[in-house]
Amino acid sequence: MTIKARIASLPVISKAINGGLMLAAVFGLSLAIPASAIAQDDCGLSIQRTWLKGLVATATVSGPCNSAKIDLAVRNSAGDLMWSTSHAAEGLFGFDGIEDTDSMGVALADWLGDYADDSTSSQLPEWPTGVSMPNGGEFPFYVADGIDQPTYEAIRIGNYPMLCYIQGQESTLCLIRQPRLKTLINVGAQSFPG
């Protein structure tokens, strides 16, 4: 269910919208808002969530809501930067058609919270020797550049804390946390039906 559909399904919101439209029709009021005003809504906001028991993921949005950029930074308890990247919001699953700051806030909370999968590297699909990529079935796992089969299998068997977050319309990016390293390691991307 899309974010807009979730909001519209709430009885209070639906009644308020229907009631507002009825009042406008009865009293001849205009509720029209210029499209340019909506499209130019600056979505400057930032939210944080805890990832992997002790890391803080911060998503910071800049620019107009309908073409916003999202900067993601993940830091440890000492404040050390462990991962950072940027995404165009329209390129991420769950951010389609966002035109205002409130909708962006809901999408960000879902992105860093409900849609981020906290597990371990043992959940990665097996990559048998002599095969070109891990066994992924219908939705393959695409290994990150620079990770070969023996390294991948050592990571998988190592059972490291792992977090996979949405990085596109049909995939999540999986990061692992190894002891003694002050960075998260990109293992690869898990595809999902978009």
Structure description:
The radius of gyration is 21 Å and the shape is globular. It is 26% helix and 29% strand. Residues 1-39 have low confidence and may be disordered. It has two domains: 1-32; 41-191, no CATH class. The chain is α+β, with helices and mostly antiparallel strands. A hairpin with a 5-residue loop joins β3 (69-75) and β4 (81-88). The strands form two sheets. Strands 5-7-8-9-6 form a five-stranded antiparallel β-sheet, covered by helices on one side.
Outline the fold blueprint.
Elements (H helix, E strand, L loop, with lengths): L2 H6 L2 H17 L7 H5 L5 E7 L3 E8 L6 E7 L5 E8 L12 H12 L4 E4 L20 E3 L5 H10 L2 E6 L4 E6 L8 E7 L3
Antiparallel strand pairs: 1-2, 2-3, 3-4, 5-7, 6-9, 7-8, 8-9
Shape assignment:
globular
How many structural domains can be distinguished in the coordinates? 2
Helix content: 25-40%
- The number of helices is 5
Order of helices and strands: HHHEEEEHEEHEEE
Structural class, from secondary structure content?
A: alpha+beta
Short description:
The chain is of the alpha+beta class and 194 residues long.
What are the key terms here?
alpha+beta; five-stranded antiparallel beta sheet; four-stranded antiparallel beta sheet; disordered N terminus; 194 residues
